What we know:
Elements: H1 3-14, H2 37-46, H3 49-55, H4 67-84, H5 88-98, H6 110-126, H7 133-154, H8 156-170, H9 179-182, H10 187-199, H11 203-219, H12 224-234
Amino acid sequence: MSYTFRALSILAASLVASLLMNVARAEQLGEHPVLPTECQIALRIVTSPEYLQKNHSKIPELKNLDEAGMVTAMTNSLMESIKNAPDQEQFCATKIRQNLAYSSAYHFPKQCVDFLPLLKKSFEDRVAFKTDRSDSAQQKMNNAIVEMLVLDETDPAKLVQRCDVGIQVMQVNLNDKHLREKYPLPAACEVFFADMEKAMILPSQFETIQRQRVIFSIENKDTPERLDEICDEISK
């Protein structure tokens, strides 16, 4: 893997739209085995009152059942699908994406509710030159929401912090020629970012690096030694 690709991959993992914490311990559901976090979320969505109300006439297994019966039926159906899935986390993440419209099944903190429209605009701006910009932006948005749902399940305080930082970052002019002075980084990071900036060709790529600078600076303003460790690692 090339230096640039590897570095971008690591950077992307720390962006607000890359909040996913892969596997976390979830609570037991009756006698069912412990599920990946994504599956806990998917199960909550498909057994929510809104989902059941809108789908009870469309899903044969739900007809003529009361609410408790529908919850049981949907739980058993999803659990069977999860058991047979070759990649349970990916299967459940896809199930979540397919049902994000049932937003009453999840409740983000206010900071994240305020951050979501800013994030969506950012995605739209970044793909504005593409012919399939609408679908591309929505796909990125859906992925980000799934990541946020997982983080909300595993570390709610961290999600609030990420959304707070995200709001601050979205308010920054990334083309400000004094950005480096306003958001300084430790020496190891400055060297890394300078090398990365030279490798960027498209304006959107350069903005991604600048955005990451701001995120690094805000998130780690009280722990510069942590930034040294991060930049040393991704420079290897």
